Amino acid sequence: MNNDIPLNWFLYFAAASFAIGLVGVLLRRNAIAVLMAIEIILNAANVNLVAFWRYGTPAPGSGPLPGVILAILVITVAAAEVAVGIGLILLCYRRWRVADVDRYDTMSG
Amino acid sequence: MIPDEVWRSAVVPVANLQLVELNLQTWIRWALWLAVGFAGIFPGIVAYMVWLERKVAARFQDRIGPNRVGPLGLLQPIADAIKLITKENIVPRSADRIVHLLAPILVLVSAFLVMAVVPFAVGLVPVDLPSGLVYLIAVSSLSPLGIFLAGWSSRNKYSLLGAMRAVAQLVSYEVPQVLATIPVALWAGSLSLVTIFDRQLEFGWNVFSPPGFLAFATFLIAGVAEVNRTPFDLPEAESEIIAGYHTEYTGMRFGLFFLAEYLSVFGVSCVATVLFLGGGTPIPFLEFPVDLLGDSTASLIVVNLILLSVFLLKVLGFIFLMFWIRATLPRMRVDRLMNFAWKYLVPLSILNVFFAAIWYEMVIRPGGLTFGNWLRGTLVTGVLVAAAVYLTFLLNRKLAEAKPLDADWPSVAPATEAAR
Amino acid sequence: MASILFLVIATIGLATALGTVLSRNLVRAGLYLVAFFFAVACLFVLLEAEFLAAIQVLVYIGAVAILLMFGIMLTRDTMGDDTTAIPVGWMVPGLFGGLCVFAVLVVGINNSIAPSGWSPWEGTSSRPSIVKEEAEPGWVAERREAVNDMGRVIGVELMTRYVVPFEVAGLLLTAALVGAIALAHREDPDPKPPRSANRAAGPGAGDGPSTEAEEPVASSVSS
After folding, report:
1. Rounded to whole angstroms, how far apart are CA atoms B286 and C113?
2. Distance (Å) from the C-alpha of residue B76 to the closest C-alpha of chain C?
3. What is the ipTM of this complex?
């Protein structure tokens, strides 16, 4: 492509999404909302990976697709994490009857 | 008239999947596809599918069907559309209005997007993606989200319950549907639907091989479940939890769901035709009519006409099959439905991938299709497929004897004893 | 042309991310998240990795979003709008903190110099061309083939160079699947007597709705 998108723009987008996700993780009280914000962070990291894959020159011996494969593995791990996270939140909900992370504050019981 | 070079470049070369240039010609192609195909032909086909369904169901039930509005009732879909548009749009007061409107739109968009990668004839494919199969799976996974949102936003216990069951069914049957397309991708060596079509020109239709036949059967059953047709229409049947997830939808919003369902039936039929039946080629193991494709525009038109009409005939056959099944079979209970997906279809599909690899090694890897290879491949994989199907049913029967499915319904057995 | 497209998609992406984080209604937040996933998929298409975009839609919107919706449904207090908002006193410090993090990242992006002393990344204003030319470095041919037929090349890579991460990811998914089902499974407190001898217990002994609630979660998890 001739009039192309500078790499910086993708990095700014990823940084902004990361910052928004971080704010979400820190500020939200509902456990599921925190999970959603974590997903935003993971997606920002994925955009970073794929942007650097496309705009950079590959290291010798790493193959033609290191960024994309890493992104796929990150997607896999994120999906597994959400599954287990929902299971944990369900357990906590059964115990304390509310999905509020401020109430999940004892290690026993 | 459309100039020659537009026709010329419409024939996408197979192995040269380069980036599409975003010039005026591409925009014109896409605009034509959108205006003529997606906004005109497909809704028209869907409207007359509704008419066909009512006629076919009526004949199966020994009656006539709509015959008042226009000759043979052919204007009935127009009357239905007018009725749906002029009906009052009632939205429950506590419903979430935006989500209530968004849900049928999501399901409809998913149904339309499926049609965007189907090759109807040579060069008649809206977009030829190099990863077309994955795109198809991705896009058909948008509809469970829409259905869940429909059930949720109606603020109705029964809608929510219906939506949960619908999502459980749709998500469960996605797995065998996807696994059934793996043999096809394996044999074609690519995920692009145009390449799959081309490979079937060389090696025969994918259905004429035992693993391909099993994959075809699995894909069809899972496809019927994915579009919520009988016998899997638990989510939306009128006698199940009122009407499931579209209880609170009236007027044109219900019309959107209706349109989306019939469009997905059409979409699944088109995809099944392309993947397994060599979409458009009339004779299984010959390259006719694609080998008539010369350099002239006239040959392109003739070939495309033949391919397109045969394609539509096959799609019509599938649609008729789905109507036939609807008129014949009763509805499946939800736990039997889930049982069938996870305990029968998924193991069979996974084993089928293995058999597909055996077929690939025996028939496709040598290069061209020879009768000896094909016969040997059919015998070996045929025995394996038959054994796998038999074993699956046998093992499930043993499992069911150990723990009967009706164990949660204690009033069934004692009631019959008390009635004696 | 591509720049305008990127600006539109990036704006939509950031707006929907903000919507997810700031929305009071959890289902609306989930919908904004779906739109964000879709914007990220569009960015992947702009980066010529459309296989990854399809996988993103399939896994995130088709599975993770539905799972989150089920989670929202199963953990709400009443049947109505969930309004667990951000406490008002935290809003301004939170946004300020977010802006600081973003500023640090931007400074890092603009002034980064690789350890080998390369020019900063700011100089990378256009992507390495993969159009076929005579004098091209060795890796361009491989990359062109990868971009043209990404599904096949990913398959080859996952089976040759990245086979260990692939197998470990499979193990991780199996463990997560079994673990999630084990976590969410509602244990029976004591073994029930045989059903046919216990007609007074009624059908299902009150376990109907919860087992049905478990089943969709389990099926969504296993998809």
Report:
1. 61
2. 36
3. 0.94
